[in-house]
Write a sequence for this structure.
């Protein structure tokens, strides 16, 4: 490889290794040889997206303990749940002045914030599946972000809920958060305390894509997330939502009725939990809190989806009512077969007075065609109570794709993945 580079003109070099990497692999040997050569000062991009063998990691890490002055993009993914050794402070000699994109997966690099202080031209920073050995404190990350006036995409995803800030060392928020003037996409997975500590120190008025995944908690307190959402003008136009219940999480996606495919505008809140009753109570807690109430209370359409091998029938009807209670402006509600059975059971038990308090603006309730007749019969007391109160509700049939497209996962997958 060194001889090959000697014969080429002095041009920028891009290294790409995308197949499964194994020791002795010719492509990998060539890649590392280029990193180790005297021509490393010409390397502008490094893409290594399938590193699985420990021997490869050790050689790569050793080759990266020097400056790469022309490096603008670094992308390194470790797969298979391996725990590789921690990257030291000397990675890239602790300086990356021209770096614009940094993407790491499953790589412990606890001193990364120090490196980021030299990378004030970053546009994209995505750190996926951060292992416990690579914990980055929210205070150190916030300090690094203060130099990133060009940052557009920030993604931090922790592997486990053990990535929790030390309660005794949580800093007080500054009186005025630092503004990230270019940030439009923010993705986070971790415990809510970490996000709150980070957001207490930053603001992002141009934000239009927010994807939050929380590990299960018994008590969510999210004033900083509320402030961030309230300051982002794009979110004020969001009036439709999708609720997806699966065997491992519950996800609420909020978006404007008019979508632009090449300019995704979404707010996604997901809670990872395998117990349905805790899924509902956790999301209900967040929705009714001050953190999300202003946004939730203006939604006009809600479509539901389910991905469950089977339903557990030990749920209390009050939990479904608790989840729906904050949706004061909801006009159109689309329910899948399994969810329709449970929600309708809860609604039909309401007294005449309560029938107008839950979903007071509801005008149309849509259920799958196969459920229509049963639901119409079961919901007759609720429909009658709403009619007598002057808030009539019509029940109709629907099928997937007939209303909202339930396409948010496709829209944001390009950013999230």
């Amino acid at each position: 490889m060194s001889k090959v580079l000697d014969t080429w003109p002095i041009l920028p070099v891009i290294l790409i290794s995308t197949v499964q990497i194994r020791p002795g692999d010719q492509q990998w040997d060539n890649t590392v040889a280029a990193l180790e050569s005297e021509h490393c000062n010409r390397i502008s991009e490094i893409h290594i997206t399938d590193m699985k063998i420990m021997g490869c990691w050790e050689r790569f890490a050793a080759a990266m303990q020097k400056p790469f002055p022309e490096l603008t993009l670094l992308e390194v993914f470790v797969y298979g749940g391996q725990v590789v050794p921690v990257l030291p402070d000397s990675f890239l000699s602790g300086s990356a002045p021209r770096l614009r994109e940094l993407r790491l997966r499953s790589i412990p690099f606890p001193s990364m914030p120090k490196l980021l202080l030299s990378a004030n031209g970053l546009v994209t920073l995505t750190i996926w599946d951060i292992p416990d050995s690579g914990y980055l404190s929210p205070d150190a990350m916030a300090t690094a972000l203060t130099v990133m006036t060009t940052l557009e995409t920030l993604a931090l995803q922790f592997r486990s809920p053990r990535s929790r800030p030390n309660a005794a060392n949580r800093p007080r928020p500054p009186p005025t958060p630092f503004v990230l003037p270019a940030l439009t996409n923010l993705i986070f997975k971790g415990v809510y305390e970490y996000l709150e500590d980070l957001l207490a120190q930053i603001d992002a008025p141009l934000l239009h894509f927010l994807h939050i995944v929380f590990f299960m908690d018994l008590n969510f307190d999210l004033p900083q997330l509320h402030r961030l959402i309230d300051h982002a003008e794009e979110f004020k136009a969001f009036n439709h939502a999708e609720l997806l219940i699966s065997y491992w999480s519950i996800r609420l996606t909020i978006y404007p009725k008019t979508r632009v495919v090449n300019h995704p505008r979404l707010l996604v809140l997901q809670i990872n939990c395998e117990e349905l009753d805790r899924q509902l109570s956790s999301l209900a807690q967040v929705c009714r809190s001050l953190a999300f109430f202003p946004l939730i209370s203006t939604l006009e359409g809600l479509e539901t989806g389910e991905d469950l091998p089977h339903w557990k029938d030990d749920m209390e009807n009050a939990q479904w009512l608790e989840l729906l209670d904050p949706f004061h402006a909801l006009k159109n509600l689309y329910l899948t077969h399994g969810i329709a059975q449970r929600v309708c059971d809860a609604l039909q038990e309401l007294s005449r007075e309560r029938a107008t308090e839950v979903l007071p603006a509801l005008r149309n309730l849509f259920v799958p065609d196969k459920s229509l007749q049963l639901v119409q019969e079961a919901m007759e007391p609720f429909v009658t109570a709403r009619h007598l109160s002057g808030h009539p509700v019509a029940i109709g049939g629907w099928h997937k794709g007939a209303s909202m497209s339930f396409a948010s996962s496709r829209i944001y997958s390009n950013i999230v993945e």
About this structure: Residues 276-288 form the longest helix (13 residues). The radius of gyration is 25 Å. Confidence is low (pLDDT under 50) at residues 402-415.
